[in-house]
Design a protein that fits this description.
Order of helices and strands of chain A: HHEEHHHHHHEEHHHHHHHHHHHH
Strand content of chain A: under 5%
Number of strands of chain B: 8
Number of helices of chain A: 20
Helix content of chain B: 55-70%
Number of helices of chain B: 30
Strand order of the largest sheet of chain B: 1-8
Distance between the termini of chain B: 143 Å
Helix content of chain A: over 70%
Strand order of the largest sheet of chain A: 1-2
Distance between the termini of chain A: 30 Å
Largest sheet of chain A: 2 strands, antiparallel
Shape of chain B: elongated
Structural class of chain A: mainly alpha
Shape of chain A: globular
Oligomer: heterodimer
Number of strands of chain A: 4
Chain lengths: 513, 723
């Protein structure tokens, strides 16, 4: 059934219209390309805001009003099915906001402007696709298509070692995708045997624990269908999150990627992994999810502690923040594993809040990199890479402090509420994990403050004396994030209200198993 | 008559508004920002005075409290019950007194800062942080639940971090601020665990609900990781206090916090923030009692009071002496909580805030006027001072009165509060053998306190100037509204009768017929948890009827003890008081003999006790243990190792190692492809075709003789087989 609104089509295809526009603009007119891309993302942002306003926050689950459903490939019952609920809407809003900001921060890209912006908008479109698809096949298509622009954006516009990082990112994710593909096809074939009666890729139809009693033979052993394919799906999504031990692509990709791509990577792409759990792995295999919840929680804990400890050892700022993402996504995993209202809401909120705070940190490092052309806190030869930035760049420092404290979960800034909810959820689930995970908060503060101390305090070192403070463009794109981080720290209800009905529905589904 | 939120909210909103406005305009108009900060602080103080008047003077009964909540955010229904996260106000006598102290000290320190920070390049920014800090502290005092306490607690930690690192050009300030934040965060993490434990058990963190839960036994029989839940949460929350109030073993951060400007040390690291830890433990006293950890608390307090006092003996930096003295005094408060001197611990919190703020400001006044022209810096080292009382008479008077107060001389505030804590400690020690040690430590610390404080006074203000040039360059102090007047105002409140007396006469009014008139002991009482089982929450917009609680107020002169017990307690308190007086004078006497008469040599003592002296010099090796061993060797070593494993081993060999498998598979398939499929199979087909080709070509040569020969051969062999 198609809803009366066509907004989801608009939001999905708007970036693609942007790509076509960019392709028609001559290569030499770089500013026109930049402004067109900015215009395009602003339109997307505006559509997202309209979406937010039309969204009915009291209704759990997919909103019929926005539903888009067309037959795509009739022979295989593949649909072009888009929908939105309280879990995907925050992600859509986050994507729209971050892409607009990233376009502004990409203003200084010099190399092949046309190609960059075309791929960037293409990336935006494919990310929207992932968050909107309700047909597994369509979801998979977008999931895979997203790799292509990402591969080129890292591989062409990245740092010295960009090709290695791009290939690594691609192969890692692709490995997960293959497992997911197997799972998807298995589901398709198994679906006819359930009460659905037909082979289908429809995520909503597949959801609700329909494959619980199914067993299958593999290499002569009997496996529980749902447990086996939950693990397949889990690995597919876990690589994206990234869950330990599938995390090592992340530091490479982050360090090599240009600023805007790092922002998208940390801000949105990682959330696609946890979104996958919420949309696909959990609802389709609820019993298996509950069965593996303890495992997920322990993996989340390892992420938190391991990521934080590794972050502390880094002397490259970007690598440090990359590992901090590993640590922070561990909190999301904890919240998911708790499978309670508090934990799940905390997890989705943390997905949003981590998107804003980490984006800020990566943008700030990008701003600094444009001035310094290096990112060493301490160079390999033991000399200081930065020093006394507080004195040299006062405005920059204030924004940095906001981002840093938001990231470490200072009350009054956004990270705190989501972490508190996650902890509340996980405390009821497993107290040992909670107590251990709280040390992650401690180490989380330590590596950030230590980095801050080494870079910002003390006398200004000679090479930093030439740095200029943030300019108007940079303030312009940092300020929405500052506002978001402070506003949702003091008043989280706008985000929580969107998600709580849908999250509640998911939790009540999980609680039946 | 109604008491509405409109009477209370401005106390916190005014400084917070000043912070928000100043944050944006401070760079453009710093002077205006300073003015705005001070004015809002004054207004906030006036509102706090009004609350104080209403609560402490005649208007309300002794048991009156205001409790209002609003929903911060909610997550819908959980198991049919709404899950709301509340924020709100809980205001009783204790908060009212604390509010007056906080806003009063903050106001005085704001005014003093206009003098102290005037020539600083970041004059305005300092006030931005001050406003935020004050708002956070007020927020903590008004909080009705632990979560909201935690929020403001951390915000204060942030302000403390920023102000310790205020002189960010200096490397040391960076180290000190990080150390302060991280050390307190260790405690904070445990505090959060405690909050979670309570929250997940009773679904709320409100004080009122916690009291009611303790009374109704909701915590009974529950365990967390093998420990009874109530003990678990009590220890966790007390660990928060240990971090914030710089108690043993997390005391290391407070001396380093002196890197901040002196007014901030006065406000944050003496009067308010560090006392917030003690306040938390007082609020949670029923929990501590139910958890059975009061003995532990007493020991922590006693050890801290004693240990910090010994380190203070040898400090030469005037602010360092005060910093260690703060730790030591906070130890007294914690000791007070441990021995059940609820009322006295809180009183000491208030009296200490006043005299320690005044001491720090006086030290600031001294430091500010001692300007070294060679280094263009201020002098904090006491060996370079001496004889300053002639140059700074007002500062001298203020500091002297505060020293009398902290040393516990009769008629001064410190005597009133400290004596009660020691009296209760003595009472406990007589009853329980285990409690002897904390009491003894407390009494020895009192002796040390009197000694090191007078040592500081004598070294600073008496004798001959030891740095003549510095002395000559120092101007004679004149009375000014923002330098000495704030000090003198605080000095007035170092007198004991404000706290022990009955200036208001309210004891009589509130409890008709009661002779006992000390407002502190009539108003500040351990929460009666039973009472809270009956109280209901009030909505945010509602108003309170002032007479509502009158009937519940009753005064118990014996504090719940029997007549005989009360008599005994009274007796012990008398002995304690006499002992404290003797000890204070004795401490004074030793300092006098050492530094004025010079009859006894400090050097003799330090050489006699040299191992201990060395331990004192390195602050009992805590910094070495934490920084050199645990952090540098342990944590950083482990981090580097893990990071090496992660990228150097795991990623390089295991993840990228899959490439080896790939390469092997590639080689095998390549070989198979080339050699078997291609060479043998594909090329083999070709070769076989070629072979046939050669054969057939040879056969099909088109020569008729050859065909005929074949025909003959075939025919002959056929016939031969037939035969």
């Amino acid at each position: 059934m198609n809803g009366s609104s066509n907004l989801l089509n608009w939001i999905l295809w708007m970036p693609i219209i942007g790509v076509l526009g960019v392709l028609f603009i001559p290569k030499a007119k770089e500013n026109l390309i930049r402004f067109w891309s900015l215009f395009n993302t602003v339109i997307s942002l505006a559509i997202s805001v309209v979406l937010y306003m039309k969204f009915d926050q009291t209704v759990p689950g997919m909103q019929a009003f926005f539903n888009v459903d067309y037959m795509w490939i009739k022979q295989f019952n593949i649909h072009y099915h888009l929908g939105i609920d309280g879990i995907s809407l925050p992600m859509i809003l986050l994507t729209s906001l971050l892409f607009t900001i990233c376009i502004l921060s990409s203003w200084t890209i010099k190399k092949s402007v046309k190609g960059y912006f075309a791929l960037f908008l293409f990336l935006q479109g494919s990310i929207y696709g992932v968050f909107l698809s309700l047909d597994f096949f369509l979801f998979y298509v977008f999931w895979e298509v997203m790799l292509i622009p990402m591969f080129f954006l890292i591989g062409i516009w990245g740092g010295e070692n960009r090709e290695y990082a791009a290939v690594k990112f691609f192969l890692y994710t692709f490995f997960g995708s293959i497992l997911m593909l197997v799972g998807m096809i298995a589901l398709y074939h198994a679906s006819a045997g359930t009460d659905l009666g037909v082979n289908t890729f429809d995520i909503l139809a597949l959801s609700g624990g329909k494959f619980q009693s199914l067993n299958m033979e593999l290499f002569g052993y009997t496996f529980s269908f749902s447990k086996l394919f939950f693990v397949f799906m889990f690995i597919g999504f876990a690589i994206k999150v990234p869950v330990f031990p599938f995390h090592t692509w992340l530091p490479h990709a982050h360090v090599q990627a240009p600023t805007a791509i790092s922002v998208v990577l940390a801000g949105v792409l990682l959330k696609m992994g946890t979104y996958g759990f919420l949309r696909i792995a959990f609802p389709i295999f609820p019993a298996a999810s509950v069965y593996f919840a303890n495992c997920i929680a322990w993996l989340g804990l390892v992420n938190i502690i391991y990521g934080a400890l590794c972050a502390m050892a880094q002397s490259d700022v970007k690598k440090l923040i990359a590992y901090s993402s590993v640590s922070h996504m561990g909190f999301v995993m904890l919240g998911l594993a708790a499978m309670s209202i508090q934990g799940m809401n905390g997890a989705v909120l943390q997905m949003f809040n981590h998107g804003t705070s980490t984006a800020m940190l990566f943008l700030l490092i990008g701003i600094l990199y444009e001035r310094s052309h290096h990112r060493w806190i301490i160079r390999p030869d033991g000399t200081k890479g930065f020093g006394g930035l507080y004195t040299q760049l006062p405005k920059y420092t204030i924004i940095f402090i906001i981002a840093m404290f938001a990231s470490m979960g200072l009350p009054g800034l956004s990270g705190f509420i989501s972490e508190a909810l996650i902890f509340l959820g996980i405390f009821e689930f497993n107290k040992t994990i909670t107590v251990l995970a709280l040390f992650g908060l401690l180490i989380g503060a330590a590596y950030l403050l230590w980095m801050f101390k080494r870079m910002f305090f003390g006398e200004v070192i000679e090479e930093c004396k030439a740095y200029t403070d943030v300019n108007a463009r940079e303030v312009l794109y940092m300020s929405p994030l500052c506002v978001a981080v402070i506003l949702f720290g003091i008043w989280p209800s706008p985000v929580l209200n969107i998600m709580k009905a849908s999250v509640g529905q998911l939790v009540s589904l999980m609680s039946q198993f | 008559m109604d008491y509405t939120i409109g009477n209370i909210a401005p106390i916190i909103l005014l400084p917070f508004a000043a912070f928000v406005i100043n944050a944006f305009i401070v760079k453009k108009v710093p002077k205006f920002a300073v003015g705005l900060g001070c004015i809002t602080m004054f207004a906030s103080f006036c509102y706090a005075c009004r609350v104080f008047k209403d609560f402490v003077f005649v208007t309300y009964s002794a048991d009156y409290y205001v409790h209002k909540v609003f929903t911060w955010f909610d997550l819908g229904l959980i198991n049919g019950k709404p899950f709301n996260v509340d924020m709100g106000i809980y205001l009783d006598n204790m908060s009212a007194v604390l509010l007056l102290m906080v806003t009063g000290c903050a106001l005085i320190i704001h005014i003093f800062s206009t003098f102290y920070m005037e020539h600083d390049a970041r004059f305005g920014s300092f006030f931005v942080y001050l406003s935020l800090f004050t708002a956070a502290m007020i927020g903590l005092v008004l909080s009705e639940n632990l979560l909201s306490v935690f929020v403001f607690w951390e915000l204060m930690g942030f302000c403390s971090y920023s102000l310790i690192g205020f002189y960010y050009e200096k490397e040391g300030a960076g180290n000190a601020s990080m150390k302060a934040f991280m050390t307190t965060r260790v405690g904070d993490v445990f505090f959060l665990v405690g909050i979670l434990a309570i929250w997940s058990t009773i679904g709320s963190t409100s004080f009122v609900d916690i009291y009611a839960a303790i009374a109704s036994g909701a915590f009974n029989d529950l365990t967390v990781v093998g420990i009874p839940l109530v003990t678990f949460s009590a220890i966790s929350i007390f660990l928060g206090t240990i971090g914030k109030s710089a108690q043993f073993p997390l005391q290391v951060w407070l001396p380093d916090a002196m890197w901040g400007p002196t007014p901030c040390s006065a406000l944050i690291h003496a009067a308010t923030m560090v006392a917030a830890g003690v306040y938390l433990s007082l609020r949670m006293y029923p929990l501590m009692e139910a958890g059975g950890i009061t003995t532990v608390i007493a020991y922590i307090g006693g050890i801290t009071a004693f240990g910090a006092a010994t380190i203070a003996l040898i400090q030469t930096d005037i602010k360092a002496v005060l910093a260690y003295s703060t730790i030591s005094q906070l130890g007294y408060m914690v000791l007070g909580i441990g021995v059940g001197a609820y009322n006295a611990a809180f009183m000491h919190l208030i009296t200490h805030a006043v005299f320690k703020a005044c001491l720090f400001l006086s030290a600031g006044s001294v430091i500010h006027s001692l300007h070294d022209h060679h280094t263009d810096g201020h002098v904090q080292e006491m060996p370079r001072m001496g004889g300053l009382r002639k140059k700074m008479p007002f500062t001298f008077i203020a500091m002297l009165c505060c020293t009398f107060a902290i040393a516990g001389f009769p008629f001064f505030s410190g005597f009133v509060s400290k004596d009660r804590i020691l009296g209760d400690a003595l009472l406990q020690a007589l009853d329980h053998k285990t409690m002897i040690a904390p009491a003894v430590l407390g009494f020895i610390a009192a002796l040390l306190t009197a000694f090191y404080m007078f040592r500081m006074m004598f070294l600073t203000f008496y004798g001959e100037p030891r740095d003549k040039e510095l002395y000559e360059h120092t101007d004679v102090e004149t009375l000014s509204w923002n330098r000495n007047v704030p000090l003198l105002i605080l000095t007035v409140f170092t007198l004991g009768f404000w706290y022990s007396g009955s200036l208001t006469g309210q004891g009589l009014v509130k409890f008709p017929g009661v002779e006992h008139k000390e407002w502190f002991s009539t108003l500040i009482k351990k929460p009666d948890v039973e009472k809270f089982t009956k109280y209901k929450r009030e909505a945010w917009g509602s108003t309170d009827s002032r007479d509502q609680f009158f009937e519940k107020a009753h005064y118990d002169a014996n504090h719940g003890m029997t007549e005989a017990q009360a008599h005994h307690a009274h007796h012990v308190h008398h002995i304690g008081a006499i002992m404290s007086i003797i000890i204070a004078f004795f401490g004074f006497f030793i300092a006098y003999m050492m530094y004025i008469k010079k009859a006894w040599s400090p050097g003799w003592w330090s050489s006699k006790l040299s191992p201990w002296y060395r331990a004192l010099q390195s602050k009992y090796f805590f910094d070495d243990l934490y920084i050199k061993v645990i952090i540098q060797k342990g944590l950083l070593g482990m981090n580097n190792f893990l990071a090496w494993i992660d990228m150097g081993i795991y990623d390089r060999y295991i993840v990228d190692g899959t490439e080896v498998i790939n390469r092997f598979a590639y080689r095998v398939s390549n070989w198979f492809d080339n050699k078997i499929v291609d060479t043998v199979g594909v090329d083999g087909t070709g070769a076989s075709v070629r072979l046939f080709n050669v054969v057939l070509r040879t056969i099909q040569s088109g020569k008729i003789q050859f065909y005929f020969m074949i025909l003959v051969v075939v025919l002959v062999s056929y016939i031969w087989t037939l035969v």
